[in-house]
Design goal:
- By secondary structure, this protein is an alpha+beta fold.
- It is built from two helices and eight strands.
- A three-stranded antiparallel β-sheet has the order 3-8-7, with no helix packed on it.
- The longest helix has 27 residues.
- The chain starts with a strand and ends with a helix.
């Protein structure tokens, strides 16, 4: 187990668990490796279609790290402060980096012990999430209308 980090309730509403540091981190430091199962792009797409994904790190166009089945892989708990719910004064302090064909979280600022590790997932990720939420709402509305007709 890594004593430098702990997983606890995120300070971002609705985000679930978050990754927190127990030590000061310097800007530019590679702080934690993104670990999990190495899969291909085709396998990534298959898992996405089966809704068995959510902790994917893209190393290359055909190499992904999937931490879905590895809850002990702590880097998967890093949240994005610019997600669906933004909190004033809470900003991302890290970014993802590929280094030597491996996934890492890199500090973009000095981070104090006790702080949450926050990293951008990218605009495409949040666009897809918003689209999926919209589809789920439309599906629920259709089901509600069908139920009302009966």
């Amino acid at each position: 187990m890594n004593d430098d980090f702990e997983v606890k309730k995120s300070q971002i509403p609705g985000a679930g668990k978050g990754l927190f540091t127990n030590k000061d981190i310097k800007k530019g430091e590679r702080i934690i490796e993104y670990l999990g199962e190495i899969i291909t792009g085709a396998e990534c797409n298959r898992r996405a279609a089966a809704d068995k994904f959510g902790y994917i790190f893209e190393v290359t166009k055909n190499k992904f790290i999937d931490a879905y089945q590895t809850p002990e892989a702590l880097a998967r708990y890093a949240n994005d402060a610019k997600g669906l719910t933004k909190v004033k004064g809470i900003n991302n302090n890290c970014c993802y980096e590929v280094w030597k064909s491996r996934g890492w979280i890199l500090a973009e600022k000095n981070i104090k012990a006790g702080s949450e590790i926050l990293v951008s997932y990218g605009a495409e990720y949040w666009r897809d999430i918003r689209y999926n939420i919209k589809l789920e709402k439309e599906k629920a509305e259709r089901a509600k209308k069908q139920k009302a007709k009966k």
